[in-house]
Amino acid sequence: MVIGVAGWELEIYGAQSLKEKRSVVKSLKDRLHDRFNLSVAETGHHDLWQRAEITACVVATDRRLADSVLSNADRLVAGDARARIIDSYRTFY
To answer: Which of 10, 25, 53, 62 has CA atoms 20 to 30 A from the CA of 44?
Structure first.
């Protein structure tokens, strides 16, 4: 069993309030969960309008599968036009 964890620090384009930011973050979290069955949480920058940090976790039978799922998740986050990835990481346990 392998646990894969990925995190993204994001710049949220055009958010003028926490409500607008949370709308973008919630959409990303929901899509990551629905498409890849990831556990996802907002883990940083809770009080900033145009910054967010989200972290996702997957449990898989081997590292190759976990890496594949997290790579697909990374493409989904990178493809969202409402946010830009500032930094990201991936860890396996």
So the answer is: 62
pLDDT tens, 8-48? 999 999 899 999 999 999 999 999 999 999 999 999 999 99
Task: Give Cα 17 to chain centroid, integer Å.
Answer: 20
- Answer yes or no: are the C-beta atoms of 92 and 19 closer than 8 Å: no
Cα–Cα distance list, 12 to 54, 58, 82, 86 (Å): 12, 24, 6, 10
- For residue 4, the cross-strand partners are 58, 92
Look at residue 45 and give its three-state secondary structure: coil
The one-character DSSP state at 62 is S
Q: Which two tokens stand for residue 60?
A: 């898989």
Q: How far apart are CA 52 and CA 77, in angstroms?
A: 12
